Amino acid sequence: xxxxxxxxxxxxxxxxxxxxxxxxxxTSADARAKNYSKDYYIGGRSLGGFVLAMTLVATYSSVSSxxxxxGVAWQKGFGWVYFASTQVVAAFIVLGVLGKKMxxxxxxxDSVTVVDVIRQRYQSNTLAIISAVVIIVFFxxxxxxxxxxxxxxxxxxxGLSYKxxxxxxxxxxxxxxxxxxxxxxxxxDTACAVVMLIGMFCLGYAIISKGGGINKIxxxxxxxxxxxxxxxxxxxxLSPTAESSGVxxxxxxxxxxxxxxxxxxxxxLPQSNVRCLSYKDTKSVHSAMLYGTIVVGAMMVGMHMLGxxxxxxxxxxxxxxxxxIPTLITNYMNPFLAGITIIGxxxxxxxxxxxxxxxxxSAIVKDIYMHxxxxxxxxxxxxxxxxxxxxxxxxxxxxxxxxAIKPPDIIVWINxxxxxxxxxAFFWTLVLGLFWKKANATGAIWGMIGGxxxxxxxxxxxxxxxxxxxxxxxIVCALIFFIIGTNVGKPVDEKVGRLFFPEKY
Length: 505
Description:
about 500 residues; mainly alpha; Sodium/glucose cotransporter
């Protein structure tokens, strides 16, 4: 009976998402007949401020935001909350720095994808193809982590096996994304973001209630910290660096890395940047910057804070810290409220997967297939583009699901690796391309390949600079190679310069 009560809200939510996907497919038929790729991949540049903010937030909030992060906060304390707070600036930075410039360029060049913008800026098909391949590889890696996390949550909280949970969960998200396209993703992302907040508040109420109130919970956390300091076992949960045996487990270098990986360098995430091509006017992007920052802050700080407070309810765990949130939901909540709360982490996972599927599909269909047709002067059949888009989106989802059948242990490291790879490849390519007139194709290619090589090789060999994450190595090497390549390569064509930097001519 409890399992049924937990599962029923999830089932209803899944049915709503599927219904939205098919409804949007039906209502978008005319727009897709005229220009399938523009409607399917960026929603016809029609997003308002609230929806833009919610889809950006939902895309950025992944399974690790609701599972791995709060689990580590349960273990290490308030230092991990501060560590996670670096993510609050993500929406503001992406929309504030790239939002207007990419929107203007997108309209001038009729660009539908991030790779379209890169191709127009650098006039290099080689760079565009490399960019598309990088997107496909790292998006598949990221989706792998999301499918694993979603299936684990679904399995742990409903009693189904991991494989059954994976198949059921994946079927829903792949189907509504494939059928509905970007508009479906944007609207379902908005629904997911709202449900994430509701789930967080339900979980917070349960933790504080079961823990006997904030004062009692804090007394428990204080006692745990005193014991850890005295015995050298565990972490001082009240310390900003989560000290263990007198050593900071969250050193300053790791804080700096986090600011880079989840703050400044989010400018290099194509799945977020493509949102800059999808909104309808300046008012929308200004509203989205405000809404997005507030909601990201509430989610990231709120969920990690709940992870710490749950120490007053859950004293020990069996297995990894990834089990903390599922255990709390399953064992310490009213079954029906648990079902509503379960939707939160599932929604975070589904919204990220759907955004990656659409952006990954566009890299194959729009950036490779359609461009090759246009280069040969062949006419684009919109119905055929539609069939190929649906097929590619479905295949990408199926491939990621197949890889997720035998999952690795810790999801957060998969996400961090993929995040770092995408940021290394695209951060300077986009930032310097949009704001440095001298940047050219040679510099962008050298920067992308050189930075990625440095990042992946040092990750594989375990080479680090102090305790910094390898994103520092990747970003620095990419910048060095970019500058060298720019000085070696040919100057930017004046026509391109006038298009991207009209104020300088």
